[in-house]
Amino acid sequence: MASEMTLMAQELYEAMTTKPSMKGQVLPPEVAQRTVERIFSAMSGYVNRVIQFETTVPMLRLRYEGEDFRDHFAAVDRHRHDAHDLAVTAVCQGNRYAQHYGVQSCLPDIGTEATPDVISNPNVRTLVADYCGRYATETFLNRDQPAPAKPKTLVANKSLTQEPHLDEAVARANRMPYNEPVPLKTERMPIDDSRIKFTDNGPETGLTTP
Fold first, then answer.
1. Where do runs of H (alpha helix) occur along the chain?
2. Region for 162 from its dihedrals, namely left if φ exceeds 0, alpha if ψ lies in -120 to 50, beta otherwise
3. What would the pLDDT profile of 63-98 be if each residue is shown by its tens digit?
4. 5 Cβ partners below 8 Å, 6+ apart?
5. Contacts of 56 (CB under 8 A, 6+ apart)
6. Distance between CA atoms of residues 28 and 179, nearest Å
7. Contact between 106 and 9 (Cβ < 8 Å)
8. What distance in Å separates the CA atoms of residue 52 and residue 84, rounded to the nearest whole number?
9. CA distance 182 to 184
10. pTM value surpassing 0.85
């Protein structure tokens, strides 16, 4: 079963491309996709920074001492901290979009505005950090289970492909039941090497090429 995060992402995208935004406009598909991807990629980005921090710091301890170590440690820690800020901001944005479009949010309930007080709140940061870890885990474990596709509502007299001669083919394909792909069976053909003679200049097949 697809994770709740995947379902929320799909529902947000569908709402953004069919309902007016906060500015009163329906978003083009490419804009809606980038918006949703930006929200959830901020969470995976934070997880990546945590992994980088945990693997890099032990090596820094072996390579540097004193002030050099502190400088390199501060740089790596700053990357992690900034990614954490971005994840908190993304959760607030996701909650705001979900509230506006009437989509059930599965994100931490930390509000819809990423104010400085919210971003710096230790409890908020812990909630978001834990959620990001769960998001990465659930997404990975459910990677082979895509969210179920919802049937599209067709508009009368509107060409799906803008090419009428293809519409019937599209409709026919949509009506076809899905079958698991059948693995191809390949057999190695025996090689007749009776015509191959080996000479000092290499093998000769006795065949001529046009």
1. 4-16, 29-63, 66-101, 116-120, 122-141, 164-175
2. left
3. 999 999 999 999 999 999 999 999 999 999 999 999
4. 40, 106, 135, 138, 139
5. 76
6. 32
7. no
8. 13
9. 6
10. no
